[in-house]
Amino acid sequence: MLASLLALDLLIHFPGRPGEISLCTMQDEYQYFIALVASIALGWAIPRLPAGPPRQWMCSGMGLFLLVTFCGPQTLHPLITIFGNAAIIISVRNCHTWSTIFTFGYLAFFRSVTYFGLKETNEFCNAVQLILTLKTIGVAFEVHDTQLRRRGIAPFPSNSASFSCMKPFMDVAPSFMDIVNYCLCYIGMMTGPYFKFKTYNDMIRSHALHVMPRITMTKQRLRMVPVYMACFFILSSLFSYSMLWDDKFYEETTFLYRCFYMVALFVIFRMKLYVAWLMAESSCIMAGLGLYPAVSKPKPGYGPTEPEKLPETVDRSTEFSYETIYNIDEYEVEFVPTVRAAMKSWNMTVQYWLAWHVYRRVPYKSIRTAVVMFVSAYWHGLHGGYYVGLLTVPLMLAAEDWVPRDAPRWAKAINWFLRMRAFEYMVVGFICLTYDRTIRYWSSIYYVGHVLAIGFLVFGHVYRHFLRPKRRQDEMDATTSGAADQQLRHSDTNGNLTNPGKLHTQ
User: Fold this and answer.
1) Mean per-residue pLDDT for 32-58?
2) Phi, psi angle pair for 2, to nearest 5°
3) Prediction pTM value
4) Confidence class of residue 18 from pLDDT cuts 50, 70 and 90?
5) Where do Polar residues bias regions lie (predicted)?
6) What's 463's DSSP letter?
């Protein structure tokens, strides 16, 4: 079963240094918002540029401008990551392995620069480095998988027709500068969504961007943003993350209030991410990135799953889909009853990255979920809160597996209520960041999330192995007994009918 990422927390807080709490200031929020608005507006100009180098250099130039503006001298870190990976991918045979080692290794150094006497990196640079990690490793895997496919070798075993690893449509052969330009593209530079080099290259080379209904799609995607922003600002004025590390909060509040506070903070968490991701998706749509004819059935992160159905020509009557860069399904996140289903609708392009580059390539299925969650936690940062939060996910998934798929509506409603509490419980690690602060909060609510999950596991085990077999046996016994009685009555009736004289004997 595909495990997925709990959260890409780029706007609630940025990965800070070990032992510190690094929350965004309102000035950071406004700067981020301005950058997102500018990215959407710039998308209007991209399709009007000639396909190829002019469009490519425009996107890269704006990306470099954003880097220098927001990161200053710390731009050196992203550039080292970009040029180092470009050199590895072009010159090394097993580029995917060496790219992963180099990128994740540099990520560890990047997050601990203060131990080497260097100035700590700012929040924007942290966000850029997160996205670059996905893009550089992702393009290395794209190149490696292309080489394998051309030799007739599957990159990994796959029996999924929708996500075949052998489709030549995904083949890429980028040059050194193609990789650099892809990594420097301004679209999604600090917020995502993740998109493959193939998706980027299709946008750069496309001659059909002008016929795509980009403005209509953008309006459709942004229509709920004012609602989410209003919810965020109202709740932010009433509740604060910093309360979780205030001694008075634990001394003067009750268990129920602390549980309720967790609910409010998770609403703030979701509303801010909804705004960020919807605006980030809109910047992609306005530029024509990730827009494919709907007949090709694109999927988040992956792109067209049936590329053979792509028409040779398109016009304004062609139906397009932005599913490739579709990152968040808010309705599903809010209302589906299970943890697993909700997670599949959360940060979907990053989930694709984890599924394609980590989950499907782990040889032992029994440990895939744990490996994915560990990689996800490491990608987020070095804080203990990430690890205890994300490594709680497998427990929550196992706990809800006992719930039957055909459960009645009332049972699904209860499961939805508990699912929301599970998300709130796990996200505490992302808010508190450090291990000590996370454990302090969890202990103040008596580890209610773990207790409920373990309780579900125990009850599910007892139900499946003892109660359900006994119930089935009782039902079988009752059915057998009823059938025997019916057969006996039927036999008696037949006997009386064949011996009518018995009806009149005295």
Assistant:
1) 93
2) -70, 115
3) 0.83
4) very low
5) 493-506
6) I
